[in-house]
Structure formats: structure tokens, C-alpha cells
Protein 1
Amino acid sequence: MAYKYDNQNIFAKILRGEIPNDTVFENEHALAFRDINPQRPHHVLIIPKGKYVSFDHFSKEASNEEIIGYIQSIGKVCDLLDISIDRGDGFRMIANSGQHGIQDVPHLHVHILGGSSCGKMIQL
Ligand code: AMP
């Protein structure tokens, strides 16, 4: 079954400039902005600029250029926030996906959480 992308999701509106965001980093293929409801001192969402619902969708259908630009943006954001593990204290990266992943916004995003400990993995 094909992936279905909803053009009215809130991150699509952010990409179209219809609603504001607190941008941390941007390149040709990715936009990173602060989460409106931060769960840690640093809580940034990184989204691809293309219309992808989830990481599995992106990994199967994005071009190599999109994948490279998106993945490189993750390292850039970690450097900008000083949370990369070579010179900071690290971070947690989460990509909620679909119904069982409890994904609220159906446009691929990774959460980058840092600035304090994220605790042990996930609650079951
Ligand atoms: P998820 O449950 O993984 O889909 O996470 C969606 C995230 O988007 C939540 O952490 C929300 O706080 C965040 N969010 C929703 N609307 C906005 C917005 N306008 N700007 C920034 N973050 C948002």
C-alpha cells in the first residue's frame, strides 16, 4: 500500500511558511526547529523538506541527495546545540512512526533531546 501524505499537517504548513517556527538550522533538504512543548532543555525537531510521512517512507523513496542532506543536518544541529558526544554530553534521538509509534504529526521528524539526562530507554 502506498504512503499517504497529508498536505495540511502542521509541519507542511511550517515548510510553506504559513505558521512560524523557531529555526535552529536549515539546508536544502532539511529544516530544524525547536519543539513548541520542550521535554528537555534542548528539544529540536528535524524534518525533511520533501513530503515523507515517516522514516521508513523516507528511506525507501527519498533520493540519495535528500537522505544525505537530511542526515547531515542531524550532526549540524548537535554541533550547534553543543550536545554532540565529541564535545558535549550527548542526546537522544527519537522518530515516532505511525499508530504504534504514537506519531502525532504525519511528516517525518526526529526529536533531538539533550541538555539533561533522558533517563533509561522507553516505558512499556
Ligand atoms: P510526535 O508525537 O512524534 O509526532 O511529535 C510531534 C511534536 O511536534 C510534539 O513534540 C509537539 O510538541 C511538536 N509540535 C507540534 N506543533 C508544533 C509547532 N507548531 N512548532 C513546533 N513543534 C510543534
Protein 2
Amino acid sequence: METKQAMSPAEEERMIEEAFQDVLDGYLKSNHRKKVEIIERAFRFAKEAHKGIRRRSGEPYILHPIAVAKIASQEIGLGSTSICAALLHDVVEDTDYTVEDIEQHFGKKIAQLVEGLTKISGGIFGDKASLQAENFRKLLLTMSEDIRVVLIKMADRLHNMRTLGSMAPNKQYKIAGETLYIYAPLAHRLGLFAIKTELEDLSFKYEHPAAYARIAEQIRESEARRAAVYSDFSAPIKEKLDEMGLVYDAKARLKSVYSIWNKMETKHVPFKEVYDLYAMRIVFDCDDQSKEKAICWAIYSAITDIYKLHPDRTRDWIAVPKANGYQALHLTVMGPDGNWVEVQIRSRRMDEIAEKGFAAHWKYKIGESDEESELNVWLRTIKDILDNPEPSAIDFLDTLKLNLFASEIVVFTPKGELLTLPSGATVLDVAFALHSELGIHCIAGKVNHKLVPLSHKLSSGDQVEVLTSKSQQPQPEWESFLITAKAKTRLRQALRKNRQPVVAEGRRLLAEWLETHDIPDNNAVISKLQGTFHVPNREELCYQIGAQEIVLGEFLVKGLKKQAESQSSGIFSKLLKFNRKSPSKESDNTDEPSPRQEINTKETYELHSDENGSNYKIAECCCPIPGDEVMGFIDDNGEVVVHALNCPRAQVLKAGFGPRIVATRWERVSGKSLAHVRIEGIDRHGILQELIQMISTNMVIDIRKLDIEAHDEVFECDLWVRVGDVGVVSSLCDKVKTIDGVQSAARIH
Ligand code: MN
């Protein structure tokens, strides 16, 4: 390639014209309408615009857009609009021409595609992570407007990867990483299998040159042996297919260098074990699409007459195409050498879809009312997310990256409907996938008729039933086990929606209360309230008032009035925000702990709490609740930390810090504490609803968290409830034990 620099201008000119003619020839052989004139014009325009510019390799720049147009046309199967956009894709970016110029010469559609390509030309990894995400988002936004932008971008990326050798080494690494991280998974999602494989191999070659060379060498060495094994295996099959009168191609499917390496790395197996597992692909011609399925199964039957079938490795991607449109029939049989061999059976049409992906769908589309492809569903999901933008662009990138990388699972609804989900998806993902309302009110699921918690991870082939309850409310913790971006977005929306009326109610109550007591609504007053109740901002304050977690009482009035008068000093009110531990109005510098000597360790310390706070802290290790046998430990801040008497940490404290231990007694304690209860029993239909009904409706106990696990017929339920004291917990346990099927119910310490 280096010799190009030595070419004469005339030779170069001829090479450019030949390269373009090659694009045109390929296009003329395709099924597209023949719009040669506009393609010619686009070529002349681009050639003129890039005139005199060279790539780093020394070749004329125009050869790059020509190559991209060729890939778009011949490897992806796009038509004249895309070919023009590909030829012009770097004109706006690299020359003085504008999008308006393009529109004037080539019309709106081509100009829009070029604009989209220019916008995403910066690459995904900028200097700042959030910018990367923003860019990626733009890329997808544009993509959902017109998928061709992304397809041409793929062609651009593929050509850059093919010519990566002439790039500066630091750029090589960046581009290769980006390709593996974003473009290869995207190509896979778009069904561009051949391009995905090539992108992976090329990235791998630049990122791990030594490993690439080693595997490539091993492939060469084992070529002859492998060819012999394949020919032994395929000969009787071919004979049978000939007898059946089929026109077909049969070949050994070669594993890519990258996929071999990937398997060696992830499965920790040597080259021989990966490479020896080869596959055969049969592609047959068939003019009548309605007969394809029957022919696939006829071939299947012929092969299983010859070789022994692996009982559970048949994959019917015809009845259930993959999300990216892939269709084929796969089976695995025992070869003559005792190795399992995968055979893929496809019609010519299916093969084109597998290799060229999305674009091939257009070619075979019958009529206008063709069913919406699975890919469109995916694109719509992305649009869904984009239509409801979340504040954090980074989150968006993360969820999306997850979706692009995850392999997929297929699950069934009780009605036999199929859902494609990323692997790791949970029951709650399914609920949200079916309907937002189902997600919001989901309490558990039945997977293959067994009761499972919301967070249960699904496997391919699971039958999933979603159980709901009207009283169920969406919980923020759910987000931790949701996998799909759609479910996460919908959960966040529901949480926000649930919160808004409560905040509004709180705002109203607060305003009313302030007015009644003639207290002005100013920063000093609100800061003071925030400090008293330990809430970070006004919204949270209103929320807690609205939810009646905070009750505004008379005891607040005096302090607030005083506070309101000091409003004039802005700094003072700021200080208060930080000193919220101190409810006292006199202390300006309240960082000092209240003096320890105030607590007389010889006397029993009375534990008090009310709406205004408490004179103790609950130890996080054992979380005692009022009524438990407890003891106090005076911590470094002079505060009494309450431990359960039997808490292991308390034993250590008693031994080491005797003088700081104080006897305590629950006295005048109000408010709620969290208690953990475990219920075990025999699973039966409806038992969960009964449990929840009894606790939440009959006993009016607030359930904060619920975890259910079912193994075979037995279930275990972990419950976190908010209670006033231990008495409530024991009556809860007693009541729950009366439910048919419940074996035990006890508090967990
Ligand atoms: Mn380019």
C-alpha cells in the first residue's frame, strides 16, 4: 500500500475512478431501484470537496468515502440514499461545505443523514465521561430517527478498522477499544453478524497482537486435520441432500480468532478444545418462503437419520427468531470422531438476514403490513428511554451498555407469549415489560409454577407469572435488581409520581401550620425545621410531613419564632444547616458533644423519644426495638448507643469499656422501629396474599421490605416491619402462625 505515494496523478485518478466504478457495479447488481445519476453527482461533489487531501497512509482521502459507500452497499445492502450519504459523510466535518449546501444539491433526506453522521463523528469517548454518554445518546437519538445513520456509521467504522494499521499507535488503541466496547455489540444487535465478527477480530488484533498472531498460527497449523474431519462428517449428509434434490451450499463454519480467544479466556480451555468443536452450515435455495420451515425440518430429519442427536441442543430460531431477526434451525449431533458437531440449517433468505442483518429484511419484506420486527421493538425501547430522559447521562450509558452486552434469554408468559430479555433479568423486569401497572404492583412471581421473590433471576425457557396486589407500592430498592433499562425508567417515573402528591400535601400542611402559628415562611425557619428533623432539603421535609413521618407540634413554635427574627443574618441560617444536631437556639458552635459527665452511669438511664428526636441512638449491629432487653454505651460524642443485651458487640464493649456502660430503661418512647421477622412454611397458592393481607390490612403494620424464597414446596419469607415495640412483633408472629401452611414465625435479631 505504501507504493501509492509514488503514483503519478494520472494513475491516482484512474484508481479513484475504478474504485467508484466498483461501487456502481455492485449497486447495479442489487435489487434496488437504479438511481445512478445522483450517486454519480455525490461522488463528483465529494471528490471535489476532498481534493488534495490525503489520509495518513498517503492515499487520496476520497478513497475512504468510496470504501464506506461500498461497504454500505455491498456488505450491508443499503440503497442509493445511503450510498450518497456515505460518499458525502465526511464533507461537512472536514471541508467548508455545510449541511445546507448538501441539502441544496442532494435534497433533505441525504442532508439529514450526513448531518447525523457529522454529529456522531466525534466518537463516544471524549475527555469527559458524561460527554461520552451524551454523544452516545445523540448517536442513538439519531439512530431512532433513521437507522441508516447508524448503519453507515458501522460501514465507516469498519473501514477505519480495516485501515487502522496506518493510524498513529495511540489512536489505534483508542479506536480498537471503542469498537469492541460499543460498535461490535451494536452490530450484533443490528444483526450485522459478519461485520460484528470482523470488528471483533480487528479490535482484538490491535489490542492483543501477540495473542492474535499465536491463535492465527494455530489455526493455520490445524487446518489440514480439521478439513479431513469435516469432510468425513459432511460426506454422508451431502449425499442425502443431493438425493432430496436440494440446491444448497454446505461449508464448515469457521470460528473467528476473537471468539476462539474469548472462549479460551472465559472457559479456561486450551486452543484444541475450542477449535475442535466445529460447525457445519447448510444454506439451501428456496423460492417459496412458505416452504422454508418444512425444508429445514426435512434436512434436520435426514441428518438425525445419519448421526445421533444431542437431546437438548436443538434450537428452533425459526419459530422464535432472535431479537436481531436471526432465523435458523440448529442441531447438535455426534460426529464420527466422537465429537459433538453443531449443524445450522438456513434458507438463502435466512442466511442473508443473518449476515447482512436489518437491511436484508427490506429486501424480503412482503407488502406494507409486515409484522413489526423484534429489532423495531428494541429501537422503540431506546426511544422510550430517550423520551423520558433521566437526569444522569452516565446512568443511561451504563444501562445501555449492559443491554448491548448481555446475551439474551427468552421467557414465556402463562399465555405462551414470548419475551426476549437480557440475561440476568428478574421477575420484576418481566412485570414492567408486560405493563407499567403490573410492575408497580408486583409482589412476587411464579416461575415454572413455583413462588419466587420479585428479584428472582430468570433463565431461558422459564414460564413466568407475575403476581400483583393493589396495595403494593413501588420501592426504591427495586432498582438494585432490575436489569432492563425500560423497567428502571418506569420504576423511577412511578416513584416520582408516587411522591409528588405526598410532597404537595406536606407543603400544604406546612404552610397552614406556619400561618396558624404566625410564623413566617423564610429560609431561617425552614433550615431550623430541617435541622430539627434531620432532613437534607425542603422537598424531603415536605414529603415527611405529608407522609406523617414528621408531625409539627406546639413544642416547635417558640424556637421557630425566635429563628424567624434572626433571619436578617444570612450566615447564621447557613450555619444552622450544618449544625442541625443541635436543637438548642443558644448554641452557635454546636460541634462540641454534649458533655459526657451529664450521664450518671450509676443510675438507670431513661430512654426517651418523641417527634422531636430521642436521647439515644440505636446500635446498627443488633437494632433493638423498644421492649427489648438493652444496655447503653456512651460513645465518643457522649451519646448513649443502645445495644441488645445479647448483642455480641455489647459483650465486647462490656468487657473493654466498663465505665462507659450504662443501664437503660425504655421510658416514654414513641415512634416506630424496624424489626426483622422470618416466616417459614409450606408454599401454596395465595398464601402470600393472605400473609400480606393479615399484616398490612388487618393489623395495619407497615411492611418496609419483603423477601421471599421458595424451594420446592417450602418457602422462606423475610419481612421488615415498622413497629412501636416488641409486643407488636410477638402478636404479629402469633397471628401469622394461624395462617394455614405457616410453620414458624419469629423475630430475627
Ligand atoms: Mn469517515
